């Protein structure tokens, strides 16, 4: 990383997975705020600005795509996380460029590469 702490909003409904990923990101010097629902994510984003949002596509009965669509191009840098491939028609809601999608379990080097490119 470039020395500046990266502020990350991690939106993940699986609490254990969220805490594990948050600890990993913090070990790389990032500051991580957790949200487990769409409502929590929106509230946290009203309280402070984030450089990056890691958003799980499937949030129980909710969709992380709704958050990503609302913030796309005007909010934090978005990376979508999913346990399965995101259908092309789901990604049509985004203007180019669509946010990157990482399949869980995520490859840490891929995520770090995205963060590094975003910060430079």
Automatic annotation (TrEMBL):
It comes from the Bacteria. Keywords: DNA-binding, Phosphoprotein. SMART domains: REC (SM00448). One of its GO terms (biological process) is phosphorelay signal transduction system. InterPro entries: Bact_response_regulator, CheY-like_superfamily, Sig_transdc_resp-reg_receiver. Pfam families: Response_reg (PF00072). The modification 4-aspartylphosphate is found at residue 56. One of its GO terms (molecular function) is DNA binding. Residues 7-119 form the Response regulatory domain. This is DNA-binding response OmpR family regulator. It comes from Novosphingobium hassiacum.
């Amino acid at each position: 990383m470039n020395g500046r702490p990266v502020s990350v909003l991690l939106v993940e409904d699986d609490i254990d997975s969220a805490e594990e990923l948050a600890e990993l990101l913090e070990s790389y010097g990032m500051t991580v705020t957790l949200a487990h629902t769409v409502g929590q994510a929106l509230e946290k984003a009203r309280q402070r600005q984030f450089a990056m949002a890691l958003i799980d596509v499937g949030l129980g009965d909710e969709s992380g795509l709704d958050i990503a669509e609302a913030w796309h191009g005007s909010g934090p840098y978005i990376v979508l996380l999913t346990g399965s491939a995101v259908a092309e028609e789901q990604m049509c809601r985004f203007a180019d460029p669509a946010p990157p999608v990482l399949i869980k379990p995520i490859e840490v080097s891929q995520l770090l590469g995205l963060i590094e490119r975003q910060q430079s």
